[in-house]
Design goal:
The protein has 192 residues and is of the alpha+beta class. It has five helices and nine strands; from the N terminus they run E-E-H-E-E-E-E-H-E-H-E-E-H-H.
């Protein structure tokens, strides 16, 4: 099974529906048999990636005095933490039809710490600054696969950033304070 994504420059969720998951996206009669036509229409790269059955999580990361990798935040759809074959579609995202939870509710501390360790390495490898988010899918047995990143994650009431700060009883103002301080530290670090 694979998933095909469009609009990678804007947001990888734009246009994504459940029909984007296919056993073979190159069969002419499948929704992606016409991928080359869609590519030409959008003038945007396509990404075909292996679809991972299981959990989806987002790992917020801040650059303060050092790299601060937060605990992974899981995404649930209709109360299901194990998404199995489900994905966050553009429609679910638009209507805020999903919830956040602490991924540690489903996995051992060793899995959580390993996800954090490697998410931090991905963040650094990509040269991300200030703050960001690394996303991954996690199989039920704890294997994880990074599949997306955000250099400027959303700050909406349903976002993982608000969930993160709310779960620690911190205000939205504190969230913005951390981001601004992160930007100042980065500016100082690079002597811009």
């Amino acid at each position: 099974m694979v998933i095909v994504k469009y609009h990678l420059i804007i947001s990888s969720i734009i246009g994504v529906t459940t029909s984007h998951i296919s056993a073979n996206p190159f069969i002419i009669n499948s929704p992606y048999g016409k991928s080359s036509t869609k590519y030409l229409e959008l003038k945007s790269p396509l990404v075909v990636e292996q679809f991972i059955h299981g959990y989806e999580c987002k790992v917020p990361i801040f650059v303060l005095d050092n790299l601060s990798v937060c605990d992974p935040i899981g995404i649930s759809i209709n109360g299901n933490q194990n998404l199995d074959k489900m994905i966050i579609t553009q429609d679910l995202s638009y209507h805020y039809s999903y919830d956040n939870y602490a991924l540690s509710e489903c996995f051992s501390n060793s899995v959580i710490e390993e996800i954090k360790e490697y998410a931090g390495k991905v963040f650094e490898f990509l040269g991300m600054e200030n703050y960001g988010r690394i996303d991954c899918r996690v199989t039920p047995n704890g294997e994880f696969y990074f599949n997306d990143y955000a250099t400027m994650p959303y700050f909406t009431h349903h976002s993982e950033m608000f969930y993160l700060f709310g779960s620690h009883h911190l205000s939205q103002g504190k969230l913005f304070n951390v981001i601004f301080n992160s930007a100042l530290i980065t500016k100082y670090h690079y002597n811009v």
